[in-house]
Amino acid sequence: MTTTIESRGLHMAQLWIKLAVLYLLVGVVFGMALAASRHFEFIPVHAHINLLGWASMALAGVIYHLFPRAGGSRLGLWHFWLHNLALPVAMLSLFFTLAGHPQLEKLAIAASAVIVLGVALFTINLFVNIHVQD
Ligand code: HEM
Ligand code: HEM
């Protein structure tokens, strides 16, 4: 029988995957744009939109689909909100830092630290909420 936590986990998994593919779209368009304009200083932004946005989030979605009890847990919800609120801030502040606004570097670092915190909760979540009987 599917519990409330598990059905919430399946719902969260879909959300992770749909948001991830939006990052893929933004990431590849941005990759084309930086290549066409020869603005290679923005490669780290392109790389991390694709890797923290598309790759990490799609993988989280697939994992949470496989293990919905983890996806729908409180740790799963904290992971979702920390990652999804901090990543756009991190990418925009990194972009503008590299575009010549060094005062935004501290914001990029702070937002990155929030992402790292989210990943730490993801790690704990998978250890706590994935069991053999899943
Ligand atoms: C059509 C899609 C894409 C375009 C046009 C594109 C374009 C580029 C360009 C022009 C660079 C700089 C290469 C250089 O001169 O060093 C680059 C680097 C990079 N791209 Fe993409 N990219 C695309 C898709 C992706 C995807 C889907 C990912 C990850 C899932 C990705 C990850 C990276 C990474 C990690 C780097 C940095 C590589 C390094 O440090 O040498 N890219 N991309
Ligand atoms: C909050 C998390 C992360 C932080 C703070 C971070 C930070 C950094 C920094 C400072 C660089 C050097 C950029 C430069 O050369 O100017 C870098 C490069 C790189 N990172 Fe990350 N990273 C994070 C997450 C990840 C993840 C999850 C992946 C892979 C799934 C990844 C893959 C890469 C790759 C491939 C490069 C080399 C391409 C580039 O120069 O941008 N990073 N990262």
Mind explaining what this structure looks like?
With about 130 residues, the chain is mainly alpha-helical. It has one domain (about 5-130). About 85% of the residues lie in helices and about 0% in strands. Helix 4 (about 75-100) runs antiparallel to helix 5. The chain starts with a helix and ends in a 5-residue tail after the last helix. Bound molecules: protoporphyrin IX containing FE (2 copies). One protoporphyrin IX containing FE (HEM) binds near residues 44, 55, 112 and 115. One protoporphyrin IX containing FE binds near residues 31, 32, 35, 43 and 46.
Question: Largest sheet, described in full?
Answer: none
Bound molecules: protoporphyrin IX containing FE
- Taken as a percent bin, the fraction of beta residues is under 5%
- Shape descriptor reads elongated
The N- to C-terminal Cα distance equals 12 Å
Mean pLDDT score: 96
Q: Domains counted in the coordinates: how many?
A: 1
Extended strand count: 0
Q: What is the percent of helical residues? A: over 70%
Structural class: mainly alpha
Task: List unreliable stretches of 5+ residues.
Answer: none
Radius of gyration: 16 Å
Write down the secondary-structure element order: HHHHH
Tally of contiguous helical segments: 5
